[in-house]
Amino acid sequence: MVDLKVQQRLIKPKIDKRIANVLHEGQYVWGREIGELEQKLASYTGCEHVITCSSGTDALLLALLAIGLLPGDAVLIPAFTFVATAEPIVLLGATPIFVDIDPVSLCIDPALIEKGVEAAKKAGCRPVGMITVDLFGRPADYSRLHSIGLDLGLWLIADGAQSFGASVAGKRVGSLACMTTTSFFPAKPLGGYGDGGAVFTSDAELAAKLRSIHEHGKGDSRYHFVRLGVNSRLDTLQAAILLEKLEIFPKELENRQVVAARYESFLKGIVRTPHPPAPETNVCHAWATYTIRLKNRAALQEHLKSFGIDSIVHYPDPVHKVAPYQKYPTVEGGCPVAEEATSEVLSIPFDPYLDENTQWLISNAVRQFVASQTY
Ligand SMILES: *Cc1c(COP(=O)(O)O)cnc(C)c1O
């Protein structure tokens, strides 16, 4: 789905050198590459503090611990996301409230936030905040969400696991919310060779808390603990690898735009292609995946498979239909837009090095399938 080999060929000697250096220095935990990576991530995203951690899921847990989420609190999240957005809320004893998505962006629908607050109150919870998800790499509608959140007294955390590199009006993901989380899972836009994640913030107080929490609630000295925390650190080896990947990331982000535009030109009118953000919105999409929509996707998957083409459903169910989350409330009226979308989406192979010929072959297989369905 995401061919990481071309990228690896480009940077293999540099990565080998970085890894050899980590082995030579022997600082497998808290090595100097951690600080170097955090600094470079901060300057790339334009936020002041970056705290690296074990995964994108942990990044969300750290953010929720830092903001002080308590049992009885409710957090609004989009119904269409990976389960990891809901998981830490439930683990902390709070309640996720599922909000339907905007049919164009597939991100949380700002017009439904007020309904989400009502659903939380009806369930006997305190609505305290919302977690937005930049699904497939497209930033949510931050300006509207901020002003609605301000009116309703909700904090906003951005789950940017799929949108590292994306931006709105020149401001990058990482600097669009009071805290932003991301994932370095290999298939994400900035992926390592294993698990990893980070939290971004420009709030010094939150940054200090996050640092402490991801080291068991550490205080000023080694065995001095001041709060409840967890162990969630990025390995030095992953930081070393990510440093080399970050070097080529800006160019890759450009390539992603080109690859996405080519799919659009090959597939438009054949299946529902993703809506790229309108130019006047000044939104840069990170294109974590290229996700098309059609009614009979299972049959298309079979057809593609017969040509040796992989495809994957991100995600087959909205989170409120996934077993451990079914007992939590949705906004009144449920989440029909998310339900329809999850029944139709199919991600096709996508990476910044996908060549035109391969894209044409994949698109042609899709076209052939759609033609066979209509006759
Ligand atoms: C991948 C992902 C996560 C979790 O990241 P991990 O690093 O795999 O823990 C969280 N939220 C969303 C939206 C994701 O896509």
UniProtKB/TrEMBL annotation:
**Superkingdom assignment:** Eukaryota
Q: Keywords for this entry?
A: Aminotransferase, Transferase
One function term, GO molecular function aspect: pyridoxal phosphate binding
User: Which Pfam families does the record match to this protein?
Assistant: DegT_DnrJ_EryC1
GO biological process, any: polysaccharide biosynthetic process
For this protein, the record's Gene3D superfamilies field holds: Aspartate Aminotransferase, domain 1 (3.90.1150.10), Type I PLP-dependent aspartate aminotransferase-like (Major domain) (3.40.640.10)
- Keyword Transferase attributed: yes
Coiled-coil stretches are none
Mind telling me which SUPFAM superfamilies this protein's record contains? PLP-dependent transferases (SSF53383)
- The protein here is known as DegT/DnrJ/EryC1/StrS aminotransferase family protein
What is the source species? Periconia macrospinosa
